[in-house]
Write the C-alpha cells for this entry.
Amino acid sequence: MPVFAEPEFPRRSIAEANNAQAEVRIDKAVPVTVNDPALTEKMLPTLKRIGGEGGSRMNQRVMVAEDFSYFQQQVPGMFYFVGITPKDQDMAKAAPNHSQRFYIDESGLLQGARSIAALAVDFLTQKP
C-alpha cells in the first residue's frame, strides 16, 4: 500500500467513500538528502550565473524526504529547488508539493530547464 503523510487529505475516507478499505502505515524512512559539499561548491557559480542577480542562493537546511538520497549513496549529488512559487505569493505560506492546493508559476520551469542544462554542460567541461 502507498504511504502518505499529508493529514489534511485523509486516505481512509477516500477508500471508504469508494466501498474499499485502506491501511495507512509508514514502513521505512527515506535516508536524509545531503548535498555533496565539493560538488555544490563547484556548481554554485553556474546556478548564480543562470539565476542572475539575486536569483540563486544557498538555503539553510530544510527537512525533505526525497528518494534522491538513494542516488547520493552511490555518487555525489546536489539537490536544488527551482523557483516556481507565484511571484505574488509568500513562499513561507505557499502550499507544499503534493498538496491539493499546490500551484506553480510555470514561467519558472524554463529557468529550471536552463539551470539543469547549464549544470550538465559546466560539469562535463570542467577539469577535475
About this structure: The CA atoms of residues 3 and 28 lie 10 Å apart. The chain has two domains: 1-30, 31-125. Residues 107-125 form the longest helix (19 residues). Residues 1-30 form one domain.
